[in-house]
Amino acid sequence: MKTTFFYLKAMFAACLTLAIFAACSDDDDKSSLSSKIELSSNESEAVLAKPAEGATAITFDIKFTATGEWKAKTSHGWLSLDKKRGTAGEHTILVTVKENKEVANREAKITIAGNNNAEPVVVTVVQHGIDAELVFNTPDGDGNSDNSMELKINNEAGSIAGTVEVVSNYDWTVEIAEEWLSYEITEAGDNGVSKNISFYADPQKLSSFSEEASVSFTYKSATKATPVVVSYKVKVNIVPTVTFTVNDEEISEFSLERDIDDNFKKIVTVTSNFKGIFSDLPEWLVIENITGESITDQEGIAPFGEADFFTSEQTLIFSLKDEYLDTEKYEPASLKITGNKTGEIEFTPLTVKFNGAGNDYISVNAEGFGQQNTENGYYTFEAEGNTEIDDFGKGISKSFSVKAGDNTNCYLAKMVNNRPTNTYINGKDDNADEWWAMVRPKPATRSKIESQEYDLILKDRYIYESPMDPNAASKKRYLALFVVPNTVETFADLFDEDGELLPEYEDKFIKVEQKGLKKNYEFVVKGLSLGGTIYELKDGNITVPATGGEFQVVLEANNIDMETDGLGFYYRITGEPYQEGWDGIASYAPDAPDSFVTATIKGNEDGSVSSTLTITENESPSPRTERSCGFVADTGNELLCKFTITQKGKE
């Protein structure tokens, strides 16, 4: 095969390279009827100009001589021929090349063949792309006319990044001087000339919220002796922001408010994209984290924000220091806000106010009473303290403190059915209704608001407390502690003329209960009764008929008081009678076992209790048993008895 190359150079946007492959063999090897194609000798080189104004194509000629009939064709549609066949003689084909609007080079072939399977001539045309040899596009195709981009924040990914598409006919390299910027290159498509370059800013190395890096793209073309450098700018331009919200409402100032624990606080959500500090805190203010731990240092500075550049939320508690509690207000505090990397940006100060507690402020701290029962709200005192109290006898004493804007009075009221009554308790007042408890002040201490310490003293329980009620000493007793302004001059001022607590004092008292003395229980089950028939307890077992029914529990001894002792029916008991601290599952509990025996316990008018065991009918001919069931006093503290119920099978 005979080969000839044509190299067609373009001055501007497009150039064509032609490689003409002509092949022939000796005349002796071909039929005399074969058509031979021979290109003209002056086709070794041609120069093409840029398309004329408004034109969309470039043209050139292919000249050749044929000894017979011939045909010509192209491999791609962007080449067209003005002649595609002919006879013997000299010929010129005008080739039209459409404009290449892509950056990538493209290649096509023109084949001129004679008849009788004569060896064809193949012309290879290579057309280069558009003028731009290295251009930038954003991933959606929009170009960057100023050869720059601004990185974007991805808060979820924790990244500051951006991607640009680089399109070039030539290989290129990247150089970045700034240490805070890195890059990654990936393929953008299958055309071989497009690549994506992703830029990443390292938050740890950024020194401010506004930075700019110079990126150099260097490439060398076949027609240029020296490399070409294209500059590209990558920018970080993040606006530092901080907002404060209370109950989803954005605020720039707030007042500390009294909470259920009588502290003056405000819970504030801080949303920011930078790490900063509050400064200029007044001496009366402390800032705490959500766990209540102070984050304020000795110089009155408190940090906020989890990271620079990325948005985060933080819950802070702004609190009045205990020693600065006052009836009068303080001057509002303007907290200065400064960012670690925000430069000279000035943020709007956060204004914090304390409007004073007021003269009617009263706060009672009863932590000295011990743990409060979360179910009924009572603080529990033991039955006996065995401490000699001056002029009071033996008792138990626990401390509480009162902070108040003015002088206060303390009153004790007897509680009945979980409600304060107008029965006045005061062990130092002969005019009181009962004398088993009293409040005694301790020496006062002062802060901005006076803090007064007191002792609540309850007398020890003793067995003969009431000659009218032999069980009185074993019953709990209850009182309500009121701490009220000294304008409430007497105990009676807490109640209306009908003896009912005035509405303004509802929920303004502390509930206290005192345990009774331990009781020597007498609770002996004799058997079960149904329709006048008693099914006796023998050797730890009660046998009942298959028909079942509602059986009354027959007791031989019973000193259980419903109010004082409580009573529960339990199953699967593993302890022994009169064992304290045994824990089981009561029949009325949601997780009681699936048993054919259920218990109903009620209190009688005389204070005693009675019980009914409902036993379902046994439909099976086989007997069944409920083993180790029985009664427990004082809501599970002491096991009184246990037995097994055997129910006969159906006959």
From TrEMBL:
Residues 608-623 have a biased composition (Polar residues). The keyword NAD does not apply. It holds the Pfam family BACON_2. This is BACON domain-containing protein. Residues 1-22 form the signal peptide. It comes from Bacteroides stercoris ATCC 43183. Residues 608-628 are annotated as: Disordered. Residues 56-126 form the BACON domain. The lineage of its organism: Bacteria, Pseudomonadati, Bacteroidota, Bacteroidia, Bacteroidales. It comes from the Bacteria. Keywords: Signal.
